[in-house]
Design brief:
312 residues, eleven-stranded mixed sheet, 17 strands, elongated
Length: 312
């Protein structure tokens, strides 16, 4: 039997320390990251204890009578320590369902942590969703991922573009000029998708200051002018491209090609995976063929981000 406790700010240090030593947690589960937009979500995160101490965490929020893991995160799900076993996790989900029913919830939406972010095999939760919860797969987004130690060959146009960019004098480097990049990003998203970045400039600046070793901006410069850039979330063995964007001139001069040639062949060559992120909308029902074509040109191949749901 597990003891279930609801998260409170007084548990922040305990929570964050568990995430660091867990087998499938990333810095996105650090409470400083989760809570930067705490005003948008009604947090209902849970901690689970056995006789030896803290066993697992479940980032979550309430949306009406639905429990979501977690609406403000790219992925969520049960964060487990190395002691987690299949049988115990099945028992834990029985208790979770009982707790959520008693708390007035009627439905659960569960966003699992993709396997590439696991430090150790960590799919005990997926088995429990099948065996205990009778969960249904309700969303399947596809991301494009590169394994730098065993890369798929770049498409010819991407390789040509990168080499031409470097011949033309483009320089790729880290930068703290998020303000200039955000102007480029906002303009592109508004023009192409009538959308805005998930994070405001103020939010990404705050997160960069909180996580200086995890959040980086790489830019392509020509004579000091920013032509494009990418915001990278460094999750240890995995690097995730959170944003990618270029100016009109940057697109013409292949700025993004140059950035990713340097990152994949030099800066990130020792990473286990580089995740270019999802190219789908509406929980996977819509595939952005242009976007995934670009990512696959860098050798990216498919990893699914899955969402499950079940009734309580």
């Amino acid at each position: 039997m597990f003891r279930i406790e609801r998260y409170t700010p007084s548990r922040m240090e305990e929570w964050n320390d568990f995430v660091v030593h867990s087998k499938n947690g990333t810095f996105l589960f650090d409470r400083r990251y989760m809570d930067y937009h705490h005003d948008r979500f009604h947090d209902h995160s849970l901690l689970f204890y056995d006789e030896k101490g803290l066993y697992a965490l479940l980032p979550g929020n309430a949306s009406g009578n639905t429990f979501i893991t977690h609406e403000g995160l790219t992925y969520g799900g049960l964060v487990m320590g190395g002691r987690a076993t299949a049988n115990d996790v099945c028992g834990l989900f029985r208790q979770i369902n009982s707790y959520l029913r008693d708390s007035g919830f009627e439905r659960v939406i569960y966003k699992a942590v993709p396997w590439i972010y696991h430090r150790l095999p960590s799919e005990e939760d997926l088995y429990a969703l099948y065996k205990v919860c009778d969960a249904q797969l309700t969303g399947r987004d596809i991301a494009s991922v590169v394994k730098p130690s065993d890369p798929v060959a770049w498409r010819r146009d991407r390789r040509y573009g990168a080499h031409k960019a470097f011949r033309d004098g483009i320089v790729v480097k880290k930068s703290d000029d998020f303000a200039t990049f955000w102007d480029v990003l906002i303009g592109n998203l508004r023009t192409k998708y009538n959308a805005a970045p998930v994070h405001t400039l103020e939010e990404i600046t705050l997160l960069k200051n909180l996580f200086p070793d995890n959040i980086h901006l790489y830019v392509a410069l020509l004579d000091g002018e920013m032509l494009g850039g990418t915001v990278i979330y460094d999750c240890g063995a995995i690097a995730h491209a959170q944003y990618i964007s270029a100016t009109k001139q940057g697109k013409h001069l292949h700025a993004i090609d140059s950035i990713y040639m340097q990152l994949l062949q030099k800066d990130f060559k020792d990473k286990q995976f580089v995740d270019f992120g999802k190219s789908t909308e509406e929980h996977g029902a819509v595939l952005n063929e242009t976007l995934i074509y670009q990512k696959e040109g860098f050798g990216g191949r498919g990893v699914c981000y899955d969402t499950y749901a079940w009734s309580l």
